[in-house]
């Protein structure tokens, strides 16, 4: 039996002084703290005898994930160079992008432009089945499509996938509980965290799920 591990990494903290729900909006980059978070996770991956054997790095197309992926790629490629291996590049895939949310551009909190104005709060009555955009089932389905493709493509190997909180947790919840619907307030997907999911390369059965939070002390 061979095993394939997909290491899902959530991006680091974003520069967002106006507290907007940025969703898929362009122009939202990692903050200084977010850069340090991504670098901490990059060091963690480069120092791990298992993770630093990863043979590919994928990212969603948004700036915050691309920047996190680059911070991971830099030390990882130094390890590869020391082994005489070719450097990796970032491969972009839209299936691991942030969830679609109709509240994009609104502000968290109160005042003009706030999420809770204009009756928007009525759409947030059920945290398990969002009614304000892409459903958890849709999110998990596209991530599963991506993951199963990569399990076949990289059988017996490890890869890094930089994505977002909702796609990572919805997919994990589906694998563990049999359904992707969940209370979004109970997610365990810290900024710049690593969720490693190992699959049987032949059957796609989940063999194990591990979670790491390398940037928890970064401020």
From TrEMBL:
<dbReference type="InterPro" id="IPR013078">
    <property type="entry name" value="His_Pase_superF_clade-1"/>
</dbReference>
<dbReference type="GO" id="GO:0005737">
    <property type="term" value="C:cytoplasm"/>
</dbReference>
<dbReference type="InterPro" id="IPR029033">
    <property type="entry name" value="His_PPase_superfam"/>
</dbReference>
<dbReference type="Pfam" id="PF00300">
    <property type="entry name" value="His_Phos_1"/>
</dbReference>
<dbReference type="InterPro" id="IPR050275">
    <property type="entry name" value="PGM_Phosphatase"/>
</dbReference>
<dbReference type="GO" id="GO:0016791">
    <property type="term" value="F:phosphatase activity"/>
</dbReference>
<protein>
    <submittedName>
        <fullName>Phosphoglycerate mutase</fullName>
    </submittedName>
</protein>
């Amino acid at each position: 039996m061979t095993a394939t591990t997909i290491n899902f990494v959530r991006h680091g903290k974003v520069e967002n002084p106006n507290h907007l729900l940025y969703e898929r909006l362009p122009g939202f980059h990692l903050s200084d703290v977010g850069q340090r978070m991504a670098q901490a996770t990059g060091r963690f991956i480069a120092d791990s005898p298992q993770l630093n054997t990863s043979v590919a790095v994928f990212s969603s197309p948004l700036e915050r994930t691309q920047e996190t992926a680059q911070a991971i790629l830099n030390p990882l490629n130094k390890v590869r160079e020391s082994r005489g291996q070719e450097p990796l590049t970032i491969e972009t895939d839209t299936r691991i992008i942030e969830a679609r949310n109709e509240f994009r551009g609104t502000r968290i909190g109160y005042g003009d432009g706030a999420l809770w104005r204009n009756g928007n709060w009525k759409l947030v009555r059920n945290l398990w089945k969002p009614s304000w955009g892409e459903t958890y089932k849709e999110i998990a389905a596209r991530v599963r499509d991506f993951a199963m493709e990569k399990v076949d493509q990289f059988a017996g190997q490890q890869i890094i996938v930089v994505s977002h909180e909702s796609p990572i947790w919805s997919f994990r919840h589906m694998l563990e509980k049999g359904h992707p619907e969940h209370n979004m307030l109970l997610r365990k997907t810290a900024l710049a965290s690593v969720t490693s999911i190992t699959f049987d390369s032949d059957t796609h059965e989940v063999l194990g799920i591990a979670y790491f939070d390398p940037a928890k002390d970064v401020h």
